[in-house]
Amino acid sequence: MKVLLPIDGSIYSDRAVEYICEHSSLRAKTDTVYLLNVQKKLPSEFASKIPNSEEILDEAAKKILKPAKKALEAAGYKVKMKVAYGKATNRIVEYAQEIPATLIVMGSHGHTPVKGILLGSKTSSVLASTSIPLLVVRHKFYQKPGRTEVGVCLDGSEYSPAVLTFIKRRLPLFAKDARFHLINVASPQNGLLIPEVSAFGAPALSSEEFEKEQREPFFKIAKPFENYMQEKGHEVVEALLTGDPAAQISMYAQEHNLSLMVMGTHGGSSLRIMMLGSVTMSVASQTKLPMLLVHHDDPTLLRDLSKAE
Q: Which ranges of the sequence are coiled-coil (predicted)?
């Protein structure tokens, strides 16, 4: 596996480096970590007036890259460094394709939705510009005691099969003792279906029937995944919740000491704050967990999904 780790010398990218260093399961299956630092090009009118301007930028980049390389190598990784020039998002996406990267890991701030684009403009732009899975580390990593608990959010949509396919294809990324919590949140009956006959003349659904209908897509994809994971020696827990999705997921993550959240995303324009989907965005704002975001249109996942059909 090839991991691309763009860093800019900020505390956020330091957290991403730290996260990778601390994960032995990731280290065991990673061929190389590709460190990338992108320097902004000086306008030509200024560059011409500064002798050796590119050498100065190159040296500044290496001051950022070398400590990260040293830390990763001490943790057992093979590391390659690269300095690029221009717009960060473009260079990151181009280099990810060139490698080609299996996973992109980025550190990002943890702002709430009202403060702007949740994951930061650079991370959001990368997410919108490539279908490669993206692991976002937003807070300082602390190794939690006990087994590794992984939350997997499934709503039965087109994004859910891609998430499960990614986990199966990249199972070695997760700890050997990882327990997977398949989280599904149903909406409570809002009272519109309570009368004995609906407005359309059909029998109204009971609360149980209403919930069962919502969960049906989840069970359809969850059961085969559970069987597969049990064969591989991993425990799977079904977390059937009811209420506001973001609030319920965040509460469950805290109560069950989750250490990672895996969610699907449709990507979209980086100019739209809703690009992650409202639930994903809200969960991200309410939890400090690292988030692994999987695109439903990842070409490698689409091939696997077509074979399964």
A: none
How many domains are contained in the chain? 2
Provide the H-helix boundaries in 232-298: 245-255, 278-286
Looking at this protein, which amino acid is placed at residue 29?
K
Instruction: Note the pTM of the prediction, 2 decimals.
Output: 0.83
Output the furthest CA–CA distance in the chain (Å, rounded): 82
The token duo for 230 is: 């049990």
Domain annotation covers residue 115: no
Q: Which of 207, 203, 226, 225 is nearest to 215 (CA)?
A: 207
Q: How far is CA 300 from CA 129, 246, 264, in A?
A: 16, 29, 15
Residues 88 and 192 in one domain: no
Which residue, of 107, 135, 159, is where some domain finishes?
A: 107
- Cα 14 off chain centre by: 18
